[in-house]
Amino acid sequence: MTHYKLTLAYDGTHFAGYQIQPQQRTVQGVLQKALGKMAKVDAIHVDGSGRTDSGVHALGQVVSFDYPGNIPEQAMLRAMNSLMPLDIEILKAEIVPAAFHARYSARGKRYLYRVARGRFTDPFNRLYTGHWPYPLDLNRVQEALKDVVGTHDFTSFAASGGVIQDKVRTIYEATVKDDPAHHEVIFEFYGNGFLYNMVRILVATLLEIGSGRREVHDFIRLYAVKDRQQARGTAPASGLYLKEVYYD
Amino acid sequence: MTHYKLTLAYDGTHFAGYQIQPQQRTVQGVLQKALGKMAKVDAIHVDGSGRTDSGVHALGQVVSFDYPGNIPEQAMLRAMNSLMPLDIEILKAEIVPAAFHARYSARGKRYLYRVARGRFTDPFNRLYTGHWPYPLDLNRVQEALKDVVGTHDFTSFAASGGVIQDKVRTIYEATVKDDPAHHEVIFEFYGNGFLYNMVRILVATLLEIGSGRREVHDFIRLYAVKDRQQARGTAPASGLYLKEVYYD
């Protein structure tokens, strides 16, 4: 048995999310089947750093697994890429200590969210951005992002249905940058953990603040009320990317 | 009757090309049906600057048509965009003299071709680039491009099946530029006209020259032999964009 860590990118458009589900095309399902094929077994279980929803992309998802045999890192990288569909690319394969676990060893994650600012939907970016054609004051967004950084109870920003009780998370960095050349604004969030749909709800709320539909410091109120109904919007999956997972 | 010119962008991935065909989703078909809906008729015929194949994209395709009524340019732009699927965007609507014809009035066209240079296929660019992971000497490509510029008989670079007899075309500009930030090289060709598949065959030949699989000045030989079998390759549709159509 050899223990591996893979770092991978995928276009989430044609997946029913990361997590395996019967009768659905999922990233985990594709990985497990490919590894099974290599090892001549049915499938090999992989642990992911966390799930991504249908339509959500990854620039640096991480998975770990035990493989029955010892394949050098570069050979594992080549072999897995040769078995991947074109919407998954394995970026890196590493042999790691058996104690490494893609989810439990993770210390933090970084998400990116791309917002298209054109008047109409850009055909080439419709699957890779959210779209917000309304006037947007980035100074207001910057000001609101200061309230996002820190340790907060994000109950108002978690989709219902999650089983996790503790909704307190720490955001180390929350930024927005203008990319006028591509007519986009790009959010990044780096934190120790994220609740279900949290980034997409944060982005929707920040856009509403930037367009004057909410008070600049509405986050302070939303943390206090702990009510998902107050932060209504959820930005589309298409703009969201799991950019990086951090380990010690 | 008012005569209009539309400039549009589309993601060619999910179209069976520009030109209308029975039972197929085509750009022309979508445009004609939308205009018909606006005018409350079955469909309104549109003339395109030329067809693009299935999977080929457009950043600036041009069409023209007669519309039974007089709609201001901005209203036409808004109305058409509201009827377009997300993979077509109307960039501009103009009222033009009746003599204007998207194809017959065109004086030249510019095509762009994006080549991904990564070792493996990039999931996010698989539908928007060709892929050439082999070593590539851009100096050799630059040298070969000098042979592309000018007036030549492009018989060796036209897919068979075309009905056009005269295969002489003039290329005003042919360039390649390196985009190391995106790990791509980008070709552009500006000429008075292009034969069927010509840009894709030119690109495949140029890549072979750049990788040392053909002589640098192989174009000179290929013009002379007038034999499609000699320029074998055709770069994938996914990398090709109709960038601009020029009119007087």
What does this structure look like?
Two copies of one chain form a homodimer. Chain A is an alpha+beta fold. The first copy, chain A, has two domains: 2-95, Pseudouridine synthase I, catalytic domain, N-terminal subdomain (Alpha-Beta Plaits), CATH 3.30.70.580; 107-247, Pseudouridine synthase I, catalytic domain, C-terminal subdomain (Alpha-Beta Plaits, 2-Layer Sandwich), CATH 3.30.70. Helix content of chain A is 23%, strand content 30%. Chain A is built from five helices and ten strands, in the order E-H-E-E-H-E-E-E-H-E-E-E-H-H-E. In chain A, strands 1, 2, 3, 4, 5, 6, 7, 8, 9 and 10 form a ten-stranded mixed beta sheet that branches. In chain A, helix 3 crosses helix 4. Chain A is globular, with a radius of gyration of 19 Å. The interface between A and B is medium-sized, with 17 and 17 residues.
Shape annotation of chain A: globular
What's the CATH H-level homologous superfamily of the largest domain in chain A? Pseudouridine synthase I, catalytic domain, C-terminal subdomain
CATH top-level class of the largest domain in chain A: Alpha Beta
CATH topology term of the largest domain in chain A = Alpha-Beta Plaits
What's the number of extended β-strand segments of chain A?
10
The figure for the number of domains of chain A is: 2
The proportion of strand residues of chain A reads 25-35%
In round numbers, the mean pLDDT of chain A is 95
> Biggest sheet of chain A: strands, sense, closure?
10 strands, mixed
Assembly state of the chains shown: homodimer
By CATH, the architecture of the largest domain in chain A is named 2-Layer Sandwich
* Unreliable segments of 5+ consecutive residues of chain A: none
The helix content of chain A, as a percent range, equals 10-25%
> In angstroms, what separates the terminal alpha carbons of chain A?
23 Å
Largest interface: A-B, 17 and 17 residues
What class do helices, strands and sheet pairing of chain A give?
alpha+beta
The succession of helices and strands of chain A, N to C, reads EHEEHEEEHEEEHHE
> How many H/I helices of chain A?
5
Computed over alpha carbons, the radius of gyration of chain A is 19 Å
InterPro entries (chains A, B): PsdUridine_synth_cat_dom_sf (IPR020103), PsdUridine_synth_TruA (IPR001406), PsdUridine_synth_TruA_a/b_dom (IPR020097), PsdUridine_synth_TruA_C (IPR020095), TruA/RsuA/RluB/E/F_N (IPR020094)
Protein name (chains A, B): tRNA pseudouridine synthase A
Pfam family, one (chains A, B): PseudoU_synth_1
Catalytic activity (chains A, B): uridine(38/39/40) in tRNA = pseudouridine(38/39/40) in tRNA
